[in-house]
Amino acid sequence: MKKQFKSICLLIFFVFISVTPGLAQMVENKIDFNALNMDVINGQDGWTSVNNINADGNTSCVDINIGYGSLTPPDLSMCAYYSCGGPNVGRTASRVSAPSFPFDFANASIMEIQVDITAAWWGTFFGFGYDANSNGYVVPGIEQTAAYESNEGGIGFYLTKRPQSAALNCFMKPDGTKITFTYDSLYAGWNTYKMIIDFDANGGAGSLSLYGKSPGGAFDAISQIQNINLGLTPGTNTKTDPATWTKLFIQSTGSYAAFDNIIIRQPDVPPGMQYQYITFPSIGDHLTTDAPFQLLAYTNKGLPVTYSILSGPATVAGDMLSLTGTAGAVTVIASQAGDTVVMAAANDTVSFNVIDPLGVFPELSVKCPIAADTVIAPDLGKVLMFATATIDHSDILSIENVELIVDGGTVITANATENDYYFAYFDPLSQGTHSIQVIANSTGGTSTDTTFSFYVSQAAAPTRSEFIIDHLYMATQPNDGVVSSLDTTISMPVFSGTYSKIIAYLSYECPSEGCEEWDRVAKINTRGANGELIELVRYITPYGVACYDSLDITDLASQLQGKIELIANFPPKSVLTIEIKYFEGTPAHKYSWVTPLWHNDYPFGKYVAIGVAEQPAEVRDLNLSETYGIAVESAFIRIVSSGHGWGSNNSENAAEFRESTHHIKINGTNAFDQHLWRTCNPSPTSCQPQNGTWYYDRSGWCPGTIPQLWRFDLTANIGQIVNAAYIFDTTYVDYCSSFNPACNSSTCANCLETYNPYIIVAGDLITYYDDAPFFVAELQDPFGLTIFPNPSTGILTLASAAGSNDDAMVQIFSITGKLIMEFKWNGTAVPVDLSSVGKGVYFLKASSSKGIEYKQIVIQ
């Protein structure tokens, strides 16, 4: 095959970078793949490759290739890429040190290793190590199941784009210890990663730090992998002896991964001198009003760092930086001059922006009510308002609150929910035209507002229908060949205490080329006042025919008003209609709310031990007592579950064809049973005959149906705060799996299988009220609570303007009702530490004989 060249590129670069006198020269070696043939990597320029799941190296899938791939690197050059999809596949390519690309860990003091990677869905691995028997297997990856020598290992980092496997992203130490880390940019595409190794640190045990950056960006420290002790044992001729790390390896498991621009840099240090370098942590953007702050650069030799301002509105004295009060970009230089035995460090610079808070305004979008629309409120019940409010520079600025004023009356402060959503309820007082002003205030002192009119009608509300999707040919929407996606905003009726029942009717029709041939999982999700995506309808497509089904969605009424986001994922060969029908009548309770509990694809039967499977569904706290002081009158767990996955390697054909009973435990005691099994012949929706195996009974669903809806009544627990656990059938364990170390290859088709059967779950807590679940702070103010700063990073002060003669009970809850903290309080100013609870919205409740008061807390 003809070689492909870039005129300015060579396979290997030897670069001597001149620096300031007294600084070490850096020797750089580089592999960029541009001088290789556009062919498999095996056999080119010293590279060899082996299959990840067969110790003999036989190829069961395409090799790592050289070329441009489907995701061309940022420098538009060739790379090494692997494009085979699915789990349990993959290749490892490796090469030894050679004159064309030399590396020697035996006598290194400082080494910088850099590589461009786009990570695979199932896993990507890069590093250096000891291949004791020279068979091409160096360091065992996470998804990799080929046999390794016990003495083999080295250093490397593992990346996976699969969200469910985020906990597998890790750095692997020479002894095999894995240190997990997070780096959000890895999901976006190409990134550059850099490891800095100091072999002299920790008394010769060495240290390593890992950094990452997106194209065009600056390196950010990956916080979990900073100055970690490598545990090196030089001279032992083991995997913890860096002298044995004679192989560079790149590895990919299923789906697309690529590598480019592998660079090693080492200083050329004169005899008798020691090399040092500066680590200068990035500085986040600041406000012009911020107080002076400390600079935190340091060197690997522990010598003091000096600072100077290269440019921008700031001054520095010692290690304290002060802003001048003007907006602009600041660049700070960190320096270390060295001494008689330590060489001068290369200067390091960090830049950040200084923002004028009075020049940044909130973005506000009111979703409900809708301007110039009619609100249906026969008895003038409270009406829902919700909006989104965001602001640029959200790392240093935030939305302080969202307020609304109806007809020029009292200011009402909205409650924050999730994903920048805010909601409130207000009294319309009379039929007719009303005006509403909604204001978003920032912590920087700016505001954005909007005012519009709407009409309130007390007329009786007859049964009505809304077609939220009307004969939509899904192939007209963006698709990946399997699923088409519609992401849009729809307008729904706004009402209060109006309809007794709401039903969703789904019509699935065939386009001219025919319907989808297979039983695909399709979904419609919506996002309303609570700010969370909730599942409106899940549908399993029939085998090649048109069908119809319906689902009671009355429980979701609070999230189906005003302008809501709708996301539909259906096969391209679908013509979809969704009709929402509102039935005339008075509901049992005027107000409701939806709190998501379990929304995920959970593995079923994942092996933990003999007779024991993982229980992956999270334990949730349910506040069935009150919401913002409004008593919960009725509550249900609303859940839709469907089991998927089957085959000879899943014992009992789980989960799709296994009859199972799952359980919901309340406070550790079994409260509800879910017999997840559905008779498919005859079809529950009369969707027959079909092609394929439609007539087999299945785990909670049939082809051409919406899976069964379950509602578990929590009346027995009203007035309590309880925890709920969703427990999958404990009688099933998938023994034919790589998770089972005793997997029997004589009875299992593939003991290397990492795939598990799974259960798709959409579970929500539905709470009903006789008054709107919302507090108006100025009407419930017995203590005059003050919380500052708010928002905060979690360290705040609680104080009272009114004082207190008796102890109050203070409780802090998460937005889902989980009790986070509880303590007695006498009204004096006290510190409260919520720094460990995570970012989000929380609610503080103070109660005593004086009354009850609530405050919202925002942790950033």
Task: Give a written overview of the molecule.
By secondary structure, the chain is an all-beta fold. 0% of the residues lie in helices and 45% in strands. The protein has no helices and 63 strands. Strands 1, 2, 4, 5, 7, 12, 13, 14, 15 and 17 form a ten-stranded antiparallel β-sheet that branches. It has a seven-stranded antiparallel β-sheet with strand order 3-6-16-8-9-10-11, with no helix packed on it. A six-stranded mixed β-sheet has the order 31-30-34-35-28-38, with no helix packed on it. Strand 12 and strand 13 form a beta hairpin. The protein starts with 11 loop residues before the first strand and ends with a strand.
Feature tags:
Jelly Rolls; mainly beta; Immunoglobulin-like; seven-stranded antiparallel β-sheet; 6 domains; disordered N terminus; 0% helix; globular; ten-stranded antiparallel β-sheet; 63 strands; 860 residues
Based on CA atoms alone, the radius of gyration comes out at 31 Å
Biggest sheet architecture: 10 strands, antiparallel
Average pLDDT value? 89
CATH fold title of the largest domain: Jelly Rolls
Please state the overall shape, judged from the principal axes of the Cα atoms. Answer: globular
Classify the beta-strand content into a percent band.
over 45%
Count of domains: 6
CATH superfamily of the largest domain: Exo-inulinase, domain 1
- Report low-confidence residues grouped into runs of 5 or more: 1-21, 54-59
Count of beta strands: 63
Distance between the termini: 56 Å
CATH class annotation of the largest domain: Mainly Beta
- Total helices: the number is 0
Percent helix, as a range, is under 10%
Structural class: mainly beta
Instruction: Using the 3D structure, state the CATH architecture of the largest domain.
Output: Sandwich
